[in-house]
Amino acid sequence: MQINDIVMGLPENPGVYKFIDKDLNIIYVGKAKNIKKRVSSYFTKNYQSHKVRVMVRNIVNIQFVVVDTESDAFLLENNLIKTLQPKYNILLKDDKTYPWICIKDESFPRVFFTRNYEKDGSKYFGPYTSHKLRSTLLDLIKQIFQLRTCNYNLNKEYINRQKYKVCLEYHLGNCKGPCVGKQSEEEYLNNIKLIIDILKGNVNLVKKNLFENMMQYSENMEFEVAQQYKEKLDLISKYQAKSMIVNSSINNIDVISIVSDEKYAYVNYMHIVEGAIVQSLSMDIKKKLDETEEEILQLVLTEIRNKYENNSKEIISSFFFELSDDVSVVVPKIGDKKNLLDLSLKNARALKIETELRKEKTGVEKSSKRKLLQMKEDLKIDKLPIHIECFDNSNLQGTFAVAAMVVFKNLKPAKSEYRHFNIKTVEGPNDYASMEEIIYRRYKRLIEEDKSLPQLIVIDGGKGQLASALKSLQELHIDDKISIISIAKRLEEIFKPNDIYPLYLDKRSETLKVIQQLRDEAHRFGIGHHRNKRSKESIYTELTNIKNIGTKTSEALLAKYKSVVAISSLSLEELTQDIGKVKAENVFNYFDKNRK
Asked: Judging by beta carbons within 10 Å of its beta carbon (0-12, 13-18, 19+), is residue 406 exposed, middle or buried?
């Protein structure tokens, strides 16, 4: 049977349809008010999306299920998508990794949070994406109700046989000792009912119950017990005041919003009870067939309401869509409901930004890993060069000899680990000896301080500088632990130990670009230090060339007047006040002579 004949025979009822390919795989599941009209649109419309066109070309058969209402169609579609996981359908992520608050199905139920949602008869509330909200709720419950935390099997037989003894929690007043019969199961279960109301957001019911108990004990002249209930009432009132974000008259409604781009949709859902958020979820969804925001919201909301058994009759959304006949969807323009919608949209946008940053970071990390692997291959080194150190010498006609080292980790500058070196043991313009000194000093210190060594050292220079650096590594017995290369500036030649011929990398190669970046950064960092040292030395040289003027006097004058130019313009009387008559005359005469 031709596909057009199948389409013509489809019913005009609400329901779910399934597209099947030649391998009998279900590739798409959809819902519709009118199955025939919706399916026909796939074969009559000129879809711009390439994915939709490809899917339609692969359809060889269509199956359908007729249901009574559109709401039933939503639920059936949702269940089929989860079960069949068709290729072209959006698949919602499972929220089992979120923490839930569990009320265990057992005698004297424990209340605790867990990440494992099990269908064991226990009651689960959540999931809670906010650690603060979950912790606040649990702390409130523990303060108001003395619940057991042990995992004993508290059936009546064991309690009557006096199998257990009270623990420290009982003596601290955190538990009433149900394990030894000091608390009845009826009283305990009444507390559990109140806890369930709190977790559902029905705080006013709990307050009413606590108030009635307080008044009853007060009337019976049991003022100590009444005071305990008053303290519990105060605690829950404070919690309610903190958790309420809108008017308490806004009760049992869902809020859902969406922001999207071409590939992804970001959805936030909140459930509001008595003006407080009792449930909040945010999720990112990858689009499959350029789904509309309406389609995505319908799918997400149906899944959430089905999974968490929410039955709100009013939905607040950023735009109108249909869900079912007994649920109204509103788009508020002003007031508390608009504030709720704005809050939901804020959460959806925050998720979008966070997800994009995470993907960008992941992309950068993947790119860095690829470049590092390429460097390892191009340079024929043993280890991935995650930690690279590059050295550069600077001197001016043999004076002011300094060196610089820069550090890259994962191909990013680690500026806090950059270092300058003043050459201490070498006299005159000797780059080879200077390189030998700084390499020895750097790695001797790392070894003594038990710090990690780099996987790669880059030397700015040719064979001579490389040989000098290698000599220091050999003296320290680490030449077999670190790879070392040098780069000569003129032809961008890469030299390696024991290689007669240099390595020439393609000028467009990412490996060469990284090495050049290291070399240029080391040069920039070294030149700055060299310039500062040269400037400082020249100032001190001019002042200390004056008879009887030493380093301390020079420093004192520079600290006060900031520059040699300012000192040269001082009068004899001003200088005398600062450094005494004899030194003042020497300084004044020196600059007076130069002025003439």
From this structure: buried
Q: Any idea which residue has 């990412």 for tokens?
A: 510
Cα 451 to Cα 545: distance, rounded to the nearest angstrom: 44
Which long-range CB contacts under 8 A does 75-83 form with residues at least 24 apart?
75/302, 75/306, 76/15, 76/16, 76/31, 77/16, 77/29, 77/30, 77/31, 77/299, 77/302, 78/299, 78/302, 78/303, 78/306, 80/16, 80/18, 80/29, 81/29, 81/299, 82/303
Domain with CATH 1.10.150.20 in the chain: 545-595
Superfamily of segment(s) 545-595 = 5' to 3' exonuclease, C-terminal subdomain (1.10.150.20)
CATH code that applies to domain 3-84: 3.40.1440.10
Angle between helices 510-544 and 551-561 in degrees, nearest 10: 100
Query: Rounded to whole angstroms, how far apart are CA atoms 336 and 296?
Result: 25
Position 90, amino acid = I
Q: Which residue(s) pair with 255 in the sheet?
A: 270, 316
Q: Where in the chain is the domain with CATH 3.40.1440.10?
A: 3-84
Query: Do the Cβ atoms of 322 and 301 come closer than 8 Å?
Result: no
The correct answer on CATH 2.40.70 for the domain covering 253-355 is no
H and E: helices and strands count for the chain: 19, 18
Can you tell me whether residue 140 is helix, strand or coil? helix
- CA distance to 358, 367, 412, per residue, from 362 (Å): 6, 9, 15
| Segment (H or E) for 81 | helix 70-84
Q: Quote the tokens at residue 120.
A: 């064991």
Distance CA 467, CA 3 (A): 77
**Which fold is adopted by the domain 387-524?**
Nucleotidyltransferase; domain 5 (3.30.420)
Single-letter amino acid code for the residue at 270: M
pLDDT in tens, the chain (596 residues): 678 888 888 898 888 999 999 889 999 998 888 899 988 888 877 766 778 888 888 899 999 989 887 777 877 888 888 888 898 888 776 555 667 888 898 889 998 888 887 878 888 887 776 677 777 778 888 888 888 888 888 888 888 888 888 888 888 888 989 998 888 989 899 889 888 888 877 777 888 888 888 888 888 888 887 888 888 888 777 776 666 566 667 888 899 999 988 888 999 998 888 777 777 788 888 888 878 888 888 888 888 887 777 778 889 998 888 777 778 888 999 888 888 898 889 888 988 888 888 887 777 777 888 899 999 999 999 899 999 999 988 644 444 567 889 999 999 999 999 988 877 777 666 788 889 999 999 999 999 999 999 999 999 888 899 999 999 999 999 999 999 999 987 788 999 998 888 898 888 889 999 999 999 898 888 776 545 554 555 555 567 778 778 777 877 787 777 777 788 888 888 888 888 888 888 888 888 776 55
Please enumerate in sequence order all residues whose Cβ is within 8 A of that of 26, keeping only pairs 6 or more positions apart, or say none.
Answer: 18, 19, 20, 63, 84, 86
Q: Please state, in angstroms and rounded to a whole number, the distance separating the CA atoms of residues 592 and 586.
A: 10
Instruction: Dig out the tokens for 388 from the structure.
Output: 């690279």
In the block, residue with structure tokens 């307080």: 214
